[in-house]
Amino acid sequence: MSSGSLNHNQSLGSRRLPMNQTLRKMFQETTLTVNDLIYPMFVMSGEQQKVEITSMPGCYRYSLDLLLAEVDQLSQLGIHAIALFPVIPEEQKDSQGTESYNPTGLIQMTVKAIKQAYPQIIVMTDVALDPFTTHGHDGLVDESGVILNDPTVEVLVKMAISHARVGTDFVAPSDMMDGRVGAIRQALDKESYINVGILAYSAKYASAYYGPFRDALDSAPKFGDKKTYQMDPSNSREALKEVQLDIAEGADIVMIKPALAYLDIISQIKTNTNLPVAAYNVSGEYAMIKAAAANGWIDEKETVLETLTSIKRAGADLILTYFAKEVALILS
Ligand code: PBG
Choosing from 93, 112, 204, 290, which is the catalytic residue? Predict the structure, then answer.
């Protein structure tokens, strides 16, 4: 290169920095680590049960005994946090979702057992009624199918408190009712659960990407859809408003869901809040990669790492992902 001349394309090039692996590492802006990951897990009743979810290959519904063994493995792999979802048998469901706050219910017993055996594992419990209601909606519904916001919030508060009693670290309201974060925070504080945090599903879209999850829990809505309480995929200002409300009401972490089709929302929320931002790489996003990889159409490992890195690059501090275990194995 001759000095002082800008006529050489080479001297303006951007290929200098990524020239070798060491340099690429030095200039890498985003690094995915196991500390970023939260593993969603499905628990079912019974013993010695491990049932694969057809539309989510590699993900299982575990009975508590086998779930504990799995948590042990996760812990050894360096995964610190799990998000729990219960598979509730049809006969325990009702229109009011009363099983959701049963002090000896499946989730409550599971949390208790995990925190007893693995106190270092951070347990996050979902707060929403859909696994527990015969109609499959996240809230209570009147005769005409309208979701009843405030009566639902009362049940969600009972549910959250029942989780706090057995030692959950974070409750995660995923229902999208108005005012539920504030009501849950107040109730937790009143009962002196001041250290139980709230991971708020603040910007949760009415998404087709939840299909495999609803298979996993057999929780698809029996009538209508969730568009009166989950957000319209066309909107972004609404997401910022929901986040502001949840923060004002006492959320500790705000979440965007799904992740991949909503990277712009993650990015906007990141620049508009100082709270940690989480993103949910949901079941449909998982299923797409698994299906394409099973066909040999994409490289699974590379695609998973690229996808999760993009979610982090967009602004997510934490990622809920069914790939957590796989990634922990890759990174270890
Ligand atoms: C419902 C809930 C859903 C998911 C998490 N909590 C589905 C829904 O809203 O119907 C989806 C997660 C996923 O697809 O991985 N409270």
Answer: 204
